[in-house]
Amino acid sequence: MWRGKARGLSFLKIWGCEAYVKRLISDKLAPKSDKEKEFLSKIKSGRKIELHEVREPPDHSVTAGIQQEPDTLEAEASLQVNESEVVAIAPHGDILILESGEPETYKEALESEDSCKWLEAMKSEIDSIYENQLWDLVDMPDNIKPIKHKQVYKIKTDMDEKPSVLKARLVGNGFTQIHGVNYEETFSPVAMLKSIGIILVIAAFHDYEIWQMDVKTTFLNGILEEEVYMTQPKGFEDLKNIGKVWKLNKAIYGLKQASRSWNLRFNQVIKEFGFIRNEEEYCVYKKVSGSKIAFLVLYVDDILFIGNDIPMLESVKTYLGNNFSMKDLGEAQYILGIKIYRDRPRILIGLSQSTYIDKVLAKFNMQNSKKGFVPMSHGISLSKTQSPSTPGFNPTLERNIGLQSAAKNILKYLHITTEKFLVYGEENELVVKGYTDAKAEYIAASEAAKEVVWIKKFITELGVVLSIDNPVDLYCDNNGAIAKA
Predict the structure, then answer these.
(1) Would the pTM of this model clear 0.85, i.e. be above it?
(2) Residue 78 above 60 pLDDT?
């Protein structure tokens, strides 16, 4: 925001001036950018042009004979220009740079080549809001300032990172809310990854069904306890009541209390169907009926159904579908960036993060790097002084080289693990065991013991692992730590 004094305009460039385009691939001796003969001309106004149309072929004469290192780690990956980025010149002469075809504003959505699809996505969002009876159109009360909003556009991808659907989300500017006026509590729990892992192992051992559902327009289900007013969405105003505002009855994305409102609503609804919340993990629920048992795990809008009776699980799905707009995903295959592979005859379940790892490697240009066998090389010493102490501060190369080397080693190690799985199963009995190994052995053993206490309480409430009543073995390879314990 500009405050205090007028902003200078020296950074603006005229049409026809020299411009520079960042090279996608460069080496240590070559320039980082290519100079263009002429910037974009207004003659081409009104059409979309690809980035290569305004880029000169790079001059490789300086770098002849020099081999580029394949595992170069980009320090500022967010500044890298991808081939998927395009430059669009709007009819009025503005230049829009769009990444992956996702508009940043309502205007950009209307001027993009997929404008019809984005309009349809926005209409679908407004229809969902209307169906949920989210708002009442009212006159603006005195001394109350309504919050504003924006449309957030996203191209959703599947587990293989391929575009699947265009989504538009109406998001309130929650950062303008005032504590004690239009919001109070904001905390909302989510299921921990270790809890999900434990339940998946139990499901594999007992051969339980593992199903998955997705809640559509999740936060629109939360009921607001505070009075929140919002301006009418751009492009969907009531022309007969243009001066009125929305009084929100339910939460909307972007509000500070949106996640908490949804969690409270879901907790109320699922308990009415006979589920009991796990006191050690607030997003895990259990329902028992004779020999039938069902578990439910909630992570924001992702729900796992696990149980030994298909009709019972079907009844839970039907009940939730009557209360919320749901999408049935069938047997669970992908959750929180983790692929789930199951071999039921052998009582095995495998978890893989290959898609997520590939995404991280591509972000830092390490997808073609050498594969590493250890995550950390021996002898590397890291400290807080190697990290930026203030925003915008860049450590010198001498201070940062150790940190950069350590980061590259971790990414190389991740590269070799993309095809590996964390596999559970082939055990005659479910038994919790602990292992600890670190430089500070006694401290590590102490932290592991705390984790064991929590795991025992959590699994005890699940009620399906009989061995949890027995003492848990915690293995440590340091005699000093064992003696001190």
Answers:
(1) no
(2) no
